[in-house]
User: What shape does this take?
Amino acid sequence: MTTDTTTKDATPGSNPPGETVLDARGVTMRFGGLTAVRNVNLTVNSGEIVGLIGPNGAGKTTFFNCLTGLYIPTEGEVRYKGQILPPKSFKVTAAGIARTFQNIRLFANMTVLENVLVGRHTRTKEGLWSALLRGPGFHKAEKASRERAMELLEFVGLDAKAEHLARNLPYGEQRKLEIARALASEPGLLLLDEPTAGMNPQETRTTEELVFAIRDKGIAVLVIEHDMRFIFNLCDRVAVLVQGEKLVEGDSATVQGDERVVAAYLGEPFEDAPGKDEVAEVEAAEAHAEPSKDTAPGKENDR
Amino acid sequence: MTTNTTANPATTAKHDTTPKALIGIPENIGRALATGGGTLAVISTFLTWTWTSAFPGNLTVYGYPGGLQVLVLIGGALTTLFGLASYGIKGLRWLTPAGADSSIKLAALGTFLTAWYTVLAISIQLGGVVNLEPGGYVAAIATLAALLGALALPFTRPEPETADPEDTAWEQFLLNSRNTWAIVKSCFATGTSSPTPKLPAYAEILIIIAAMALGLTVFTYGIGTEYDELFVGFLITAGFGFGALAKAGLADRVSTVTAKHRTVTMTGAFAAAAAFPFTQSDDRYATIGVYILIFATVALGLNIVVGLAGLLDLGYVAFLGVGAYTAAMVSGSPSSPFDIHLPFWASAILGAVVAMIFGVIIGAPTLRLRGDYLAIVTLGFGEIFRLAVLNMDGTSGPDITNGSNGISSIPNLNILGFDFGQEHTIAGFTIARFANYFFLMLLITLIVVIVFRRSSDSRIGRAWIAIREDETAALAMGINGFRVKLIAFALGAALAGLAGTVQAHVTYTVTPEQYQFAAVVPPNSAFLLAAVVLGGMGTISGPLVGAALLYLIPAKLQFLGNYQLFFFGLALVVLMRFRPEGLIPNRRRQLEFHEEAEAPTVLSKAGA
Assistant: This one.
C-alpha cells in the first residue's frame, strides 16, 4: 500500500490557510485478530487545532502511530499535503510531521540546547566530512542552527536554561522542551500526545497558550488528551474515538452534547447492577489499555 | 552528610552527629602526628634501609634515596604538604580547595603501604627482619605513625541503617557490613570545592603545562621501573597519590582549566608524549611506548562506536587486522602475494579505506539489530575474519594471506628519505627504530583524536548521542538511525585500519593470532573494550589512559604469569562495582550511572 513517495516539493512550515494538511482515509490497523483502529477518517486543515479524545484503549495512540510512520496501516492511507506518508518515522518527520510523546522522551543527558539541535537534524545537511574538515559552511550552518534553536527556546520560554541538562528541568518545562524540539524540525503539522498529562491547572493553561501560539505560526496541531476542559477550550474540532471507531466529530459544543460520547466515557446504564464479571473486565481492560504508563520511559513500547 | 532527615527519633537520639574519627586520638595530636610522620618518612628515605644492594634495588646509600625510597619520599612529602595545608598555612591553601583531611588520609595510607610493602619484601625475601638497617625501622614507624595520625582526623559519620528485629543472622551481618562500609566511605569523603579563583590565561596555561609535565614524569617513571617490586610500589604510590590529589579537589580544578583551554591541553599532551623518546637512553621502553600508542589509538577509535553511538562491538580488532594485512600486502614483503610496494601515505589510505569497506559490509546487515544481538553478531564477524585469514593459505582456500605463517619480513618504512629502521641522532638524542615509529604512531593518534573531537561536536555527533540515549525518540526527530549508526561503524573501522597500517610495519609480521577476541597480550577485542570501559566511555583521554594501564601492568608484572587474566578480571569487576563510569568519566556517562546523585544543573565540557 504505502509507496515510498518523498515529499520534497512540499515545503514545510507555514501553510496557506484552509489547505488540507493531513488527510487520513479509512485507516484500519489490525494486530493479528485484534482490530485496534477501524476505518477512521480524519482531516486536519492548516491553521486548525484538532483534538482526538476517547476512553482508555480506544486506539488513540495506535492511530497516532499510524500517522507518524511507527505503524503502517493495514488498510487505508494517510496523506500529508497530498502525498502518501513514507513508512519510516524519520521520513515522516522529514516530510513535515513532528510529534511529542505521551511519556516524555527527551535525551535526558543532553543539554536543553542540544535537544533542540537534535530536532534540527532533518533541516540541516552537514555530514561527517563537513564536521571533520570544518569549512566555513560548517560553522555557518552550526551558527544558524544554534540561533534557530535559541529562537525556539525563547518561544517556549526556556532560553535562560539552554545549558541545563534536560533531566534537571521540572516536569512542565520538560514538556515544553519536547514541544520546542519537535518544532525544531519545522513541521507543518504538530502531533501532541497528551501534552498536559500530569500537569497542574496552571501549567495546563500555559500549555494552552503555547498551543495557540504554535497555531498562530501557521502550524496545524493535532492533540490527544484526556483533560476535557483543556481540549474543549483549545480545539476547533474534536473527534471522538471509541473502540477503534470514530464515534463523532464536530466542534466542542456538538461533541459535548452528544449522548454517545457521554455514554462512552461514563458507561451506559446496565440493565442489571454491575456484577463481578464487569468489574473484572474493566480492570483487565485498564491494565491492558495503557501499559506504557507505569513502565520507565526507556522501556515504553511505542512500536 | 546524610540527607535522611525523616529518621525516627529513636535513631536520631542514638546517632551521634558530631564528627568522630576512626581512632581515639585527639584531633590536634593526630594532625601533628600525620604531618610529623610524613616528614619523618621523608627523612628516613635518606638513610639506608638494608645492608645489601641485591634486593630490592639499591637502598643502601646514605643521603641518596633510590628505588622504592623515592616513592616513599614522594608519599611522605605529599602527606606533609597536605598536613601543613590543613593547618591553613598561607601559600599552601591552593593545594586543597576541597579540604585536606581525606587527602591526608589517602596520602598517609599510600605511603604506609609502599613503605611496609618494601620493608616486608626485604624481610621475607632476605630471610628475617635482621636484614633491615635503622632507616627501614624509621620508615616503618614513621609511616605507621602518619597513618594512625591521619585516621585520627574526625569525619562526619553517616546515619547507620537500623536493624529490623525480625532479620535473620545473615541479614544482620549484611546490614552491619553495609554500615561499616558506609563509615569507611565517608572517612575518605570530601567536602565541596571552594569556588575556582579567577586566574589570568597564562597562569592557567602554566597549570596545564605543569599537569602534563607531571603526567609525563609519572608515566616515564612507571615505564622505566626495573623490577617488579618497584612497579608494585609505583602503582601503590601513584594510585593513592592521584587519589589524594583528586580528594583535595585539585583534579577537579585542573579539569576545569583544561576544559577551558582544550586546544592548549591537546597540544600540551601531544608535546609531552612526543618528549617521551627523548627521556629514554635506548629503544627498550620506546617499544612499549609504541605498542601502547597502537593499542590506545584503536581503543579511541572503538570509543566512537561504543562511547558515542552506543554500539557494542566485540569484533573490533578485526578492522585493525584488515588495515595491517592490507598494508603488509602492498609493502613489498616477499611473502605477500602481490608484488607491489606502495609509499606509506598510499598504503595508509588504502588500509583505512579497505577497513571502512569491511566495516560497511559487516555493519549493513548487523546494525539493524539492537543491543545484545549486535554484540553477538560482531563477535562472530571478528572470529570469521581471523578464521578466513587463517584458511586463505593456498591449501584450504585461495593463497592470499599465507595462513598461520602470516605475512612476514615487512620492510621498514621510508618516508621522504627518512629510514624508520635506522638510528637517527636529533639534538644529541639517539632516536632508534621503535622511537621513529613512536613519532609516526603519535601522528596517527593525533589524527584519531581530532576526528573524535570534531565528529562528536557536530550534527552527526549529536545524532549518535541521541541514538544512544533513546533510539525511538531519535528516529521521531528525523534521524535516519541506520545510516547514522553505519557512519559511526565505518568511521571506527577506518580509524582502526589506519592504525593497523603502522602496526604491520612495527611488528615486522602480521599473523591471524594477533587479532583474536581474547588473548593475554593486547590489543584484542576484549582488551580494547576493557580499555574503553576502564578509561571512560565517550571521552578522549579515557581510552588513552585505560590502554596505557592495560598494556603496562601485564607487561611489567611478569610474576603474575598465568594469573594475569584472573587478576585483570578481578580488577575490572571491582572497578565496575565502584566506578562504573570509568577512570576519566564523561559527564553524561557519570550521570547515567549515578541516577541518584545530585546532578549539576549545567553540563560543562570537562572530562571530554
Notes: Chain B touches chain A through 35 residues (CB under 8 Å). Confidence is low (pLDDT under 50) at residues 1-14, 604-608 of chain B. The radius of gyration of chain B is 27 Å. Strands of chain B lie at 414-415, 418-419, 424-426, 429-431.
